[in-house]
Amino acid sequence: MFYLIGLGLGDAKDITVRGLEIVKRCDKVLLESYTSILTVGKEGLEEFYGRQLILADRELCESSIDEILREAKTSEIALLVVGDPLGATTHTDMLLRAKDFGVETQIVHNASIMNAVSCCGLQLYNYGETVSIPYWTDTWKPDSFFEKIIGNYSRNLHTLCLLDIKVKEPTEESLCKKVRQYMDPKFMSVKEAASQLLQIIENKPDAGLSKSSLAVGLSRVGSPEQRIAVKTLEDMQSFDLGAPLHSLVIPAPNIHPLEMDYLAQFR
């Protein structure tokens, strides 16, 4: 049996009772470490679960998943995922592979930023398509996500922006030389995301958004250190929301009065 178990967003105690029962009885438990991060480290989880965890980075999940699934034919293996286990396409692919291998699977859901973003007061049913904002480089500055934000905005819908994270990413030099060398981990902040958006707006002044458009910054949602800030995009690019992970919301142009009242406490 192969289990995908969501850990939620807070700390070690956010796992569900069912998820914890499965973790305790599994033959092997892997902790996925590249699509998100938890506020508590691997050691904290091991202490709470009372067992050892195997750190599963991108390389392990992508290159060794077939081996893991073959093992799951005769033993119980769990992969722990921050948030909800189906929040990333990587995990959907794992389930499809498991089906091809004839391996039984079970999913244990949990809270993710996709529903916990409602903590800022903007109602979930008023959101449009979620977008991802990637880190730019000197030679690569994609802006296709901006068109989706504008599409939502034109339909009076909010946009949740998931911000890029880089964990155990190979350096350009290592890819050229085919050696294992990785960049230091980094996590995009709302400051960086707002700055990139403002650069796009400067080049597309008639798109509908401006530097005075409202933005909602969120950090460490679901943890005791959760923070929310409501500012203009211009002000957001210089505002420090503290430690990662961060998310950014671009509200619809016409916000419901109840939503506006809730947002007011974060200004």
Automatic annotation (TrEMBL):
<dbReference type="InterPro" id="IPR014776">
    <property type="entry name" value="4pyrrole_Mease_sub2"/>
</dbReference>
<dbReference type="InterPro" id="IPR004551">
    <property type="entry name" value="Dphthn_synthase"/>
</dbReference>
<keyword id="KW-0949">S-adenosyl-L-methionine</keyword>
<protein>
    <recommendedName>
        <fullName>diphthine methyl ester synthase</fullName>
        <ecNumber>2.1.1.314</ecNumber>
    </recommendedName>
</protein>
<feature type="binding site">
    <location>
        <position position="163"/>
    </location>
    <ligand>
        <name>S-adenosyl-L-methionine</name>
    </ligand>
</feature>
<dbReference type="GO" id="GO:0017183">
    <property type="term" value="P:protein histidyl modification to diphthamide"/>
</dbReference>
<comment type="similarity">
    <text>Belongs to the diphthine synthase family.</text>
</comment>
<feature type="binding site">
    <location>
        <begin position="112"/>
        <end position="113"/>
    </location>
    <ligand>
        <name>S-adenosyl-L-methionine</name>
    </ligand>
</feature>
<dbReference type="Pfam" id="PF00590">
    <property type="entry name" value="TP_methylase"/>
</dbReference>
<dbReference type="InterPro" id="IPR014777">
    <property type="entry name" value="4pyrrole_Mease_sub1"/>
</dbReference>
<feature type="binding site">
    <location>
        <position position="246"/>
    </location>
    <ligand>
        <name>S-adenosyl-L-methionine</name>
    </ligand>
</feature>
<feature type="binding site">
    <location>
        <position position="87"/>
    </location>
    <ligand>
        <name>S-adenosyl-L-methionine</name>
    </ligand>
</feature>
<keyword id="KW-0808">Transferase</keyword>
<feature type="domain" description="Tetrapyrrole methylase">
    <location>
        <begin position="1"/>
        <end position="235"/>
    </location>
</feature>
<comment type="pathway">
    <text>Protein modification; peptidyl-diphthamide biosynthesis.</text>
</comment>
<dbReference type="GO" id="GO:0032259">
    <property type="term" value="P:methylation"/>
</dbReference>
<keyword id="KW-0489">Methyltransferase</keyword>
<feature type="binding site">
    <location>
        <position position="221"/>
    </location>
    <ligand>
        <name>S-adenosyl-L-methionine</name>
    </ligand>
</feature>
<dbReference type="GO" id="GO:0141133">
    <property type="term" value="F:diphthine methyl ester synthase activity"/>
</dbReference>
<feature type="binding site">
    <location>
        <position position="9"/>
    </location>
    <ligand>
        <name>S-adenosyl-L-methionine</name>
    </ligand>
</feature>
<comment type="function">
    <text>S-adenosyl-L-methionine-dependent methyltransferase that catalyzes four methylations of the modified target histidine residue in translation elongation factor 2 (EF-2), to form an intermediate called diphthine methyl ester. The four successive methylation reactions represent the second step of diphthamide biosynthesis.</text>
</comment>
<feature type="binding site">
    <location>
        <position position="84"/>
    </location>
    <ligand>
        <name>S-adenosyl-L-methionine</name>
    </ligand>
</feature>
<dbReference type="InterPro" id="IPR035996">
    <property type="entry name" value="4pyrrol_Methylase_sf"/>
</dbReference>
<dbReference type="InterPro" id="IPR000878">
    <property type="entry name" value="4pyrrol_Mease"/>
</dbReference>
